[in-house]
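Recall the central idea of this unit: under ordinary conditions, the amino acid sequence of a chain determines the structure it adopts. In this exercise we apply that idea directly, starting from the sequence alone.
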Amino acid sequence: MTTLVHGTDTLTRDALTVLQPGFVGTTAPDWLLRRIGEGLSSVGLFGRNIVDPAQLAALTAQLRAERDDVLVAIDEEGGDVTRLEVKQGSSFPGNYALGSVDDVELTRAVARELGRRLAACGVDLNWAPSADVNSNAENPVIGVRSFGPDPDLVARHTVAYVDGLQGVGVAACTKHFPGHGDTNVDSHDALPRIDVDLATLHTRELVPFRAAVAAGTKAVMSAHILLSALDPHRPATLSPQILTGLLRQELGFEGLIVTDGMEMQAVSATYGIERGSVLAIAAGADAICVGGGLCDEDTVLRLRDALVSAVRTGELPEERLADAAARVRALAAWTQAHRARGAGSVPGAAVQEGTAPGADIGLVAARRALKVTRGERPHTPMTSAPYVASFTPVANFAVGDETPWGIAAELERLLPGTRTGSYDESSADAVLSAAGERRIVAVVRDVHRHPWMTEALEALVAARPDTVVVEMGLNEAEPRGALHIATHGAARVCGRAAAEAVVGTGA
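Accordingly, the structure predicted from this sequence is:
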C-alpha cells in the first residue's frame, strides 16, 4: 500500500536528516554546508579531515555556524583505531589493553579523557566503543579492538566506556550489534557469517549489548554480518528481526541505531548503497553511515533520493522515516544541551577521584597493560642503540595504514642511534644482516595469525637468543626471546611503555 506523503519538503529533510556522510578536506566544502542548511543533521569525520585539535575545532565551528545542532561524529576508538591522532598514533591504549588490566575505573577515566578531548574540539558522537566479544582469535578485523574474549569482562568495560564518554557530553555508539567477534571475514571485504545457536548468542554476543542498553548508551551501531539463528537471509543491518525485533523490542533500546559504513562490501556488493540504505531504515535503523570511501555530494544525493523514492512507492513507510529522523534530532538535542552547559571543558573533569591525572591517563593505562615474560636466557636492559625489526602484516581497513605503530621512535628517543627496518614476509636472514652486531628488538602484531611471521621469528630467536620480542597484537602465541613484552595493542603510548621496559626505565 502506498503511504500518503505530507509535503515534499518535510520528506526531503527527513531523508537528509538520517544520513551521516563524510567529505574530503580539512574545511567543510560548500556542498556540505548547503545540504546542512537543507536538513542534513549529521557529518562523519575521518582521518583525512583532521590535522590537529585547533584545526578540528575550527572545522566543527564552521559546521555549526550553518546549523548549531548538527551532530559531528567520529570513529575514535583509541588504540589502533584513531582519527584524532591518525598521523601520530593514539595517546590512549585500545580496548584489549584496558580489558587486560580489568580495572573499570581506569577504563572509565580513559574514556572520559578521550571524550573530553573530543568535546573540546566540537565532536559530540563517537562511533565507539566496540562491545564485540572476541571469541575467535583468528578474527581479522576486531582483535585488539575488543576488550577480550569473556562476555562479562567485555560488558563491564563497555559500560565504563559508555559512562566515561557520555559523562562529558559525547554520545557513545556501542558497536557492532549484535556482535562481530566470532568472525573470520572482514565485513569491509565480504559478508561474514556466524552460525551459532540462539543460546550461544544470548550468553556470549548479546551480553555486552544488554549491559550497554541498560547503562543508557545513546546509540548502537549495527554490524554487516549474517547470523543465521536470527535471520538466515539478511545481514543484521538490513534485518527487521534483529534491529526492530531484538534490539528495539527485546532489549528495549530507544536510542539511535546507526549502520556501519554502507559502502562496505558486505552490503554494497549485494544490495548497492541505495537499496541497502532503504532496507536498513525499513528494518529499524535511524542513521546511515557513509563516507569512509564514498565521500562526495553525489553519494548524499543518491541516498536522499533513494529514500524519498522508496517512501513515494510505498516500499518505505513515511512514518518509519519520520521516526528515524526524530531519533536523530533527539540525540542532536541531547548533545546540544551538553555543549550549552560546557560539558567536557571543565578543568580537572577528565579523571575520577583516585585515578591518575587526565593528561597522562593513557600512558598510565598503557604501562599497566604491559605483560613482560622473561626467557630462559638472562636479559639485561639495553644501554646501546639496538636494531628494531618490525614484522608488518597488512592492516585491516578499520585501522588503516596511515597511523604509525611500533616502538622504534620511542626507542630512538631513549637510545639515540636506534636503527629500524620493516619486513613483510621476509626471512630472518635479512634481519640478521641488517642488524649486524646490534641487539635486536623484533616487533610483531598478531604473530599467531601469520605463519611467515612465526617462522621468521623462531629463526631469529634461535640465531640471536638475546632478541627482545614485542607483541603489539593479540597475545596468543607462546612467549619467545630473552624478554617478551605484550603490549595488548599498537597505540603510540603502548610503544612508549614497551620501549621503557626494553631499557629498564618503565614507571
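Confidence is low (pLDDT under 50) at residues 1-8, 343-357.
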